[in-house]
Each structure stands twice: as C-alpha cells, then as structure tokens.
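Ex. 9. Protein: Serine/threonine-protein kinase.
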Amino acid sequence: MPPLRGTGTDPEAEHPEYAGQYRLEARLGAGGMGVVHLARSASGLRLAVKVVHQQYASDPEFRARFRQEVGAARRVSGAFTASVVDADPDAVRPWMATLHVPGPTLADQVKRNGPLAPAELRRLTAGLAEALRDIHRAGVIHRDLKPSNVLLSDSGPKVIDFGISRPYDSDLRTETGKLIGSPPYMAPEQFQRPREVGPAADVFALGAVLVHAATGRGPFDSDSPYLVAYQVVHDEADLAGVPEDLVPLIGRCLTKDPAGRPTPDEIMATLRPPSYDAAAFVPSQRRPVTGGGESGGGESGVDGSGGDAEAVTHAGAGAAARSRKEAASGGGRRRWLAATAALLVMGAGGVWAVGAGLGPGGSGGTGEPDGPKGVAEAFSPWRTPLRTAGSATPVCSPAEGFADGSGSGSGSDSDSGSGSDSDSDSDSGSGSGSGSGEARSGRFSGLYCAAGGAGVSRLDPSDGRVLWSHRAPAHGPSVGVVAVSGGLVHTAVPGGKLRAYDPVKGEQVWDADLSPYLGTPFDAGDTLLLVAEDGTTEALDSATGVSLWRHPLAGHQRPDYALYDDRTGLAYAFEHSAYGSTTLVTAVDAATGHTAWQRRLDGMLTPVGTSDGALVLTTMNGDAQTVGLVRYEPGSRHVVRLDLPFRMNEPEVVVGGDTAYLLAHGGTLVAADIRPDGGETVRWQLETAAGRTSAPVLGAGDRLYFSAADGRLLAVDTERGRLLGQTGPRLRNGRLTYSSALPAPVAAGRTVFGTAPDGSVFAVDGQDPARW
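Predicted structure tokens for Serine/threonine-protein kinase:
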C-alpha cells in the first residue's frame, strides 16, 4: 500500500508515533531540525525515520530545503550512505525513512574511546574519500561533513544528513545573513563566498574530520564559532598528533585555496596498495534478512590488499598447438555484453604476433603471475596488461562447450612468435607441451578480450598469454563489444562493422554493415538478432553471416531484446507503452523467427531471467527505480507480483534457480525469492561497499561474482549473503577512471576472469576468494 499522508484523520495526524505507514518504535536521536526514530518496514527491515519538528513544517523555505535533502539522499543512496526507502516531504510532519545503519557516529566513537588507531584512521580516510567521490559523481555537494554525520558501520563509514546539501545545478540559494554549516568543519569559501561553494569544500571538511578522528579535536579549535571562522579563513591548521605519514595528505585537504586541494580520487590514489591497506571495508559479520530477524555469521581471513604483492610461478605455462576443433567447439550461447562496457577500436588491421604492442613498453605477451603464494595446487593466478587507450577497461568473452578432462598443458613460459605481422596461426609457435585446450579440466578453450587501443585479442585462459591479437586502427569508432557465437569470435561497433574471426587463427571470416541497425547485435545462441530503424528484426547465422529471417514483430514499433534462454531457444523482446503503464513481451524462436507467445503486462517491465519455465521480469516506478519482480507463467498465463521492501537504483539482475540477485548502483545486493509461495521476498541483503559495479555473474559452489569501478573483483556466498573476499583495486596511474558501464567478470569452473581500469585482464581462483 502507498504511504499514508499526514492529513485529515490519518494515523499520522492523530498519533505522532506514525510517519506514513511506519510505526515509530524508539527514538534514536534528535537534531535542530527533527527527530530520528527506529522503525521497521512491512518485511522487517530496520529503518531510521527522520521526522521534522512541527515548528519547521509550516515554513515553506524549510520544506523546500527538506525536499532537496530527500532528493539529494536519493541521488547518492548506496554503499556509502543510508539508502532511502521512503519519504513524504509534503506530509503535515515531513519525514524520510532510510535503512538503519547499526554503529556509532564518529563523534561518539572518539568521545567514548579516544582517537582512532593509525590503521583505523587510514581505513576511515579511504572510506570517506570513496564516499565523497560517489556523492560528487551524483552531482551533490554535502556541505556539512562532520564527525556526527559519519556512521561507523561494519561495512565502512556511511555519510548521513544531507539537510544542507546542494545539487550542482540547484536554484535554492544560501539565504543572506545565515551561516549554513558547522564552523569547525567549514571551508574558508563557505564563510567568504557561500554561493560559490563546490565539491572542494567537502574535501576541506574531510581534512578537518580526519584531524578530529586522529586527535580528538579539530584543526581549528575555540569555544567561539566566530573565532573558529576567523581561524579557518586566516590561520594554519593545527595538525599536531596526526600520524606523520598522513600529515601531507591532510594538510593538502585543509589548503585555503580550493584549487589546491586533492580530489577524492587523488586521495584514494595516495592510499593505494601497497600502502593502501584499506582498499575496502570487509565486515566481520553479515546479517541476512530472514523474516525480519537477524543472525550474525562470522568470517575471517579476507584480505583486501590485492594480489600484486607476491609473485607465483606459472603452472602449465607452455601451450601446445591448438586443434582446429576449437573453431567449432566455441559456439557458446552468450549474451552480447553492453555496447558501452569497454572502449574498443575495431578496424581491418592485420593479425599481429604474440606480444606485439602489448603491455608496458610494448613487450608483453606473457601473462604476469598475480596473487598470493600458497593457493590451491595446480592453479596459478595471472595478470596480463593490455595496452589500452584512455580509460578503457577490457571486456572479455569465453569460448566454451568442451568436455572436462584431466590433462593440462606443460612446457616453457617463453615468449612466442617473432612479432611479425603475418596471417599465420600464431599458436604454432607458442611453445611445447602436451594436451590440447580441450583437455584442461574446467578451463575454457579460449578467452577473447577487447579494449580501446588494443583491438581484440585471444588469451590463453591457463596462463594469460596473448595468442593472437588484431591491431586497432589509429583512428575510428572506439566503443564496441566482443562475443563468441557459432564457433566464431564477433566484434561490433554501433553504426560501424560487425566482424567475425576464426577463434584459432584470428583471421576474419566475414563482416556486415551495422549502419542500418540500432546498437549492436543481440547474441541468441547461434543467431545474431539486429533491430533496424523501422523496428524490423533481422536474424543472422553467426557462423556464416547469412540472413535467416527478417520481419517486424507484431505489435512492436522498436523492440528491445533483453534475454535469451538457451534451453528453449527463445529470445525475449519487450517494449514499454508510451507512458510506461504496460509492457508488451514477445517470445521469439531465434532460429526461425516464429512467435512462441506474446503478452501485454501491466507496469514498466524488463525481462531478466527464467525459472522453471517462467519468465522473470523487474518492474520500475516512474522514477526508473526497481520496486519489484514479476513472475509470468506462459502456459497458464498466471502473473505473480513480488514487491521489494525498498526501491533500488538501476540494479543489474541475474537469476539462478528460484532466486533473483539484484545488485544496485551503490552496491546494495539483494537475494529475492521468486517462488510464488507467499513467503518473504527478500532472503538476505548485503551492503558490498562498492559504489559502481558490473552485472553479477553466478559461478560454481554457490558463488556470485562482480567487479567494482576501481578494478576490484568481489565474491559473495549466495546461500548466506556473506562477502567471501575481494581483490585489491587496480587503478590506471593511481586514478579511478569512469566509464558508462563496467564489464562483468567471467566465471569458468574454478577460474574467475576479471578486467580492470588499468587495462589488465586477470585470473583468480574461485575456490579461494579469501586469499585474493
């Protein structure tokens, strides 16, 4: 049911213990503008509900500011803030409900226990820098970062209270004559030029907060706020007691000139490995949501310091000449990765030999050992740098379909090939050994990766060596995808060329012009589906490029393809109505073009998976937030709708069995039961402390994997909702890059392949995430 408005005879108007539909159970604290209460949602989630004081509720300016606070909190809701669940800024007593974050404020922690230890201080520095990065990326300036607005949770610091925050494009100005902020943590420009305050003011406040955390006092200390204001503008910060190694960084944060302060990215880069021992907060406990109750589960041995500290030797580093059967066995049924997932410059450049133009100095070609010593026998982590352009993160797709075997390649780890630009099979010179790619237990026969500046390459999944690569042209379109279908490797550039390559030799087999089509092809088994400008769908045989069928889908103007079911051979097209009130869903036989069934369903829906013959879809509200799941049974035409307990921002979804896993922007991961049995929808919820993430993928052993924007690869136990481990960040030149989408990792048996903004492709042991 929708939240009740606080007017008339509704419960909220008569009884102050209600905020909308939420009964307020206990008082958590109070501030100058309102009181924060503990409450629970209908599903049992603990909420923190802020209710505005009555005297401010009648002030139009305050209501406008509170409405802005709600909007700002929603924009930045995620891993580093308390996610907004519900709000009503227009109620008689305006209120906002967020997820309750257990843990003290930084102010309380320091007051009770004294200054933080150096390691704790570094973790706090890293966490708050990452929080400010995501807040600023959302277009928001907090303007009141202080110890009492930092919650210390088991998944890292959470920044709260956006009561005086301001979007970059806000028309709500600071009122003349009023001091907006908390003087000990305000930047000089907030006193001098309040209308020109930018993100750098939050960095100044971060420096002041860190001094307080390190010493128990601020960098500018006085009982008089006027004297503090003078000191902030004119005096040097008092950094006595701050750990020596952090003094330069915190001093830069407290520079008077906003232009001289570091950005959050630069702060994180300063703390990066090996000195950055706080890549992310890994909690000691997780509390799965089960029927509203909470149960803790301990975990240990998770190290976020990354895998570059120690080198390991290659196992099975040599490679025999690959059988040409790989060309036919690689017809895996994989979806095309998002066209914006990575930068890829495609062209007609010739095949070039192993190592040519790869890695630092152009001498790559052999995967670098990566990861700690002592991992399970017969597995060696590796890392291969690709020379990429700009902020390109490589995107990879595997060739699969061969039977498991017990053999493994062996031989030398020497660089293969002479670097000549011949079209010969570059595998022939790749070393000596025994066994073919198909004989390697649990391994794919090939890993194909693309990135801007590096073109498309084939990597040996056992050791990361580049077996062949297509040179990228110096100029041309830079966005594309790579996928394996019909036994060939395909690359595509929207509006450019679709090209198919022999997976073993790297020779181009056929190409097609994509200029008449929208976006890039949708991979539907051994068929590639393309949608023309007029909405017509054309299907190409992915092995030959021959057109299999071409016609419009009945009822559709411009359909989107979102899902392919390998078991049934059905591709699912969908299209929202003009106002988003309904969605037309069509199941199409990808090979023949015949419509298996079609149904118009209520709501703005997107197909995300199948479960026991049923189609699973997400449903969005008018703000494009995911608010629930829909399960549709084509045989009975039965529809079941499952509400989520809170709204999720742009979640990526993967369905496994009777569970849908939703990973939202901000790092909130939810496991939702999609069985229509009337039980609780949410099985568990986890805050992953990852601001931006890739789509999640399911792997062996009840594992779920996804990548973070800083290059981390994370593993989660899908049964208990626990973070099992994560790699360290892999930044490009110490800076966090930003792209419109992140490539998902590849899970292949015990191996998980990840990609990172430093241009590298790496492999880790999926059986031992705690040692990543």
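Check your answer against this statement. The domain at 106-270 is CATH 1.10.510.10 (Transferase(Phosphotransferase); domain 1).
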